[in-house]
Amino acid sequence: MRHALYTAIVAVLIALIGSCTASKGNVRPEFLNCVQHCDATTCPAELPLALRLTFWSCNENCRYECMQQITDRAIQDGTPVYQYYGKWPFYRLLGIQEPASVLFSIGNGYVHYYYYKILRREIPNGYFMKPFMLVFALVGINAWVWSTVFHSRDFPVTEKLDYFSAGLFLLYSLYYALIRLFHIENRVIIRLLTVLISILFLAHVSYLSFYRFDYGYNMMASVIVGSLQLALWVGWAVLQYIKPENKDRRSYAYLVIVSVVGTGAAMCLELFDFAPFLRVLDAHSLWHLSTIPLMIMWYRFVLLDTPHEMRLGTKH
């Protein structure tokens, strides 16, 4: 799954192993002097339409131009390439800061949209999980929309919307797992669970919005919720194979395992972060690319699981 979960886990692991991506090109004298000179000699100035439409200011454009000039010299001289304001020096495209991550975020969002239509068409209305499946897809679409926006232009508001939408996706995924794996069909219990998840989400957003935006807290909260979800699904999948006498075992449970293991392998891209290839593809964008087929596997599991569940009578 899942954009928020694995982003959080990766972030914690990176924090534990050191500051391998903590280089701050934006505090180096060479960069500061370049920006100061650019501001003094070119600003204010009318920027190209694409930059105005994506809300670039003259000062921000100076930062971008200086970052690229310094990176050009670093590559030519064989010296280290630095990050600036927490990001690698990507080539922008029509004002978009991280074109590859934007493209792959759109791809992930499209997977949810595509399977939303399939679920709505092919899942019988009598199956009690259908509404939860559809909301899962919609929450996924929302998460990747804001990922697209955030990677297009990094502002405090787009960052928060990306984090909050990803957090909602993560919490809803746990909610979905609990209902599906424990076959919770009692409406009172579902309502209580819905209220609990809603309170947790609102408390999480309120703390980050009105107290302080604590990245460490956000990471750990995501890891805790995500670990619960992963434990549930992996435990269920393993049980399908260690009890061969079970007539109700699901031969397709491997899809869940492959999805989880595949995402774990993709995390290594984040752990071994590197300057973007051709200033376009970095580890984070490739990680977004890898989640596209993994999410397709997830939806394949859902579609295979539905008729099996309905044969067991789990319907209203």
Describe this structure in words.
The protein is mostly helical and 316 residues long. It folds into two domains: 24-89, no CATH class; 99-314, Rhopdopsin 7-helix transmembrane proteins (Up-down Bundle). Helices cover 72% and strands 0% of the residues. It has eleven helices and no strands. α1 crosses α9. The radius of gyration is 22 Å and the shape is elongated. The two termini are 28 Å apart. Residues 1-5 and 12-22 have low confidence and may be disordered.
What brief labels describe this structure?
transmembrane helix; single chain; 0% strand; GPI-anchor biosynthesis; signal; hydrolase activity, acting on ester bonds; disordered N terminus; 2 domains; mainly alpha; Rhopdopsin 7-helix transmembrane proteins; 11 helices; 316 residues; transmembrane
